[in-house]
Amino acid sequence: MSHRIFLAIPITPSLQNAILEWENGFIKLPVRWLVGKNLHTTLVPPWYEEESQIPNCKARLTEAANGSRPFELKFTRVTFGPDPREPRLIWAEGTAPKEIVELRDKLLRVFSRPAEKRTFKTHLTLARFRPETFSSFPVKNLDEKVYWPEKVSSVVLMESHLSRDGADYEVIAEAGLDQI
Question: How far is CA 116 from CA 60, 63, 108, 123, 167, in A?
Answer without folding.
Answer: 20, 22, 10, 15, 22
